[in-house]
Amino acid sequence: MTGGVLLFVQQASQRTVVAADRQAVEDARDDLLSLYRSGGAAALRGEMARRFRSVEGERAVLLLTDAAGRPAGGNLGAWPAGLSADGRWRIMSLYRVGRDEPEPTGVIPVRLKNGDRLLTGMVISNSLQLARIYEEALSVAFIMSLVLALGGAIMLGRILARQVSDIAQTANDVAVGALDRRVPTDGSGDAFDRLGASINAMLERIDALVTQLRMMTDGLAHDLKSPVTRLISVVEQASAQTRDDTALDALEKVHQEAQTLRSMLTTALLISRTEAGFGGDLLRDTDVGELLRDVGEVYGPLVEDSGFALTIAAPDALVFPLHRELLSQSLANLIENALHYAEGGDGIALSAALEDGHLLIVVADNGPGIPAESHAAALKRFGRLDPARGKPGSGLGLSLVEAVARLHHGAVTLADNGPGLRVMLSLRRP
C-alpha cells in the first residue's frame, strides 16, 4: 500500500512539473499567434528576437518557416523531420543553433496563414531532472518505509509469537497433566492479556472439576476395597468350612470374581493417583536396560510357560528419568495382555531406544493384533473389545499404561506390528 501511494505521488509530481512547462509553452504560442495576426511575420520575428535576449530565452525554442519550409526566424536550423503542424503538445529531442547536444524539448507546432509554420517550445531538461530527483527521493523513501515496515512486522511477529508460544506451552503442559499451569499475564488489559485471563479462568474451573472427580474416584475406590477384602476373607472362611462340592465350586467362582473386583479397584485407585500427579516428584535417573531386564527376569518364566519367547533389546548405559515402580507395572500389564490376547503368536519383544530426545519403549507381539479402527476403544478406561469379553481382565491395563505415560510427559500409541500389535510408550524428560 505504501508503495502504491509513493508511486502515485511520483507520477503526480512528474505530471505537475511537465504540466507547468506545457502551460508556459501554450501561453507563449498564444502570445505569438496574437502578435502574428496583428502585425504579420515581421512583428513575429521581432518578438522572437526580443524573447531570445530575455532571461526566458535561455530555455526558449522558436522557429518560423515560410510555405516552402525555409527558416524565417528562430533558433532551430530546420523544421524537425516528420513533425506535423497539428497544434498538439509533444516532447522530442532537438538541436538548437549553437548547441552540440540534443535537448529534451516540449513543443507545440501550428500552421499559419499562407502556409507559414510556427514552432513554439521550451527545453524541459531541468524539469525532467527535477522529476528524476523526485523519483529518486521517493524511491529512497519507499525503501526506507519498506525497511521500517519489515522491521516493524518482524518485531510485531516476535511479540505475537512470544504471546502465542506462552499460550501453546501452557496448553501442552495441561495436555500432559500439569493442570496447575497458567498463561502468564501482565495486567496490561490488551487482547492477549484478556485472552490469557479467560484461559486461566477456564483452567481454574477444569482443575477444580478434575480434582473433585479424582477425589471422588479415589475415595470410592478406597472405600470399596475394605468391604471387598472382607468379602474375600468371608468366602475363604466359608470354603474352608464346607464339604459340599457344589457349594465349593460356587464359592470358588465368587472368590475369583471378588479377586477381580479388588484388582479393578486397586488399579482404578492407582490410575486416579497417577493422573492426579502423585509420583511425578519421584522420577529418578534410571538405567533403562537394567529395568527391562528386571521385568524380563520376573515375567520370563511365565512367558515361557505360556508358549511364548520374550526378547529384550535396549542400548547400554541408556539413562532416563523414570518412576521405576509404575513403569514396571505398566510393562507387566502389557506383557500380560500379550499373553492373554496374542493367540497364534509365539514371541513378545520388549525394546527401548532414544529417538529425538524421547525415550521410546515398545512391547510387540506377533499375534492377531487389534484393527486400526479399534485402537481408540482399546485405550479407553474399562474398554474391552468384543472378542476379549470372555478373557479375564478389567479393561484398565492400557488405561494405567496411558496414565503412567502422561506422568512421564508422554503418550501411548498402538500400531500394527505386521502381524500383531505394537504398543509404544513415548516418554519425555520433565
Automatic annotation (TrEMBL):
One Pfam family from the record: HAMP
Compartments (UniProt record): Membrane
SMART domains (UniProt xref): HAMP, HATPase_c, HisKA
Gene3D superfamilies registered for this protein in UniProt: 1.10.287.130, 6.10.340.10, Histidine kinase-like ATPase, C-terminal domain
Major localization listed first in the record, in broad terms: membrane
Domain HAMP: 158-211
Domain Histidine kinase: 219-430
Ranges annotated as spanning the membrane: 137-161
Keyword Transmembrane helix in annotation: yes
Alphabetical list of InterPro entries matching this protein: HAMP_dom, HATPase_C_sf, HATPase_dom, His_kinase_dom, HisK_dim/P_dom, HisK_dim/P_sf, Sig_transdc_His_kin-like_C, TCS_sensor_his_kinase
One cellular-component annotation, GO: plasma membrane
PANTHER family: HISTIDINE KINASE (PTHR45436:SF8), SENSOR HISTIDINE KINASE YKOH (PTHR45436)
Name of the protein described by the UniProt record: histidine kinase
Species of provenance: Sphingobium chlorophenolicum L-1
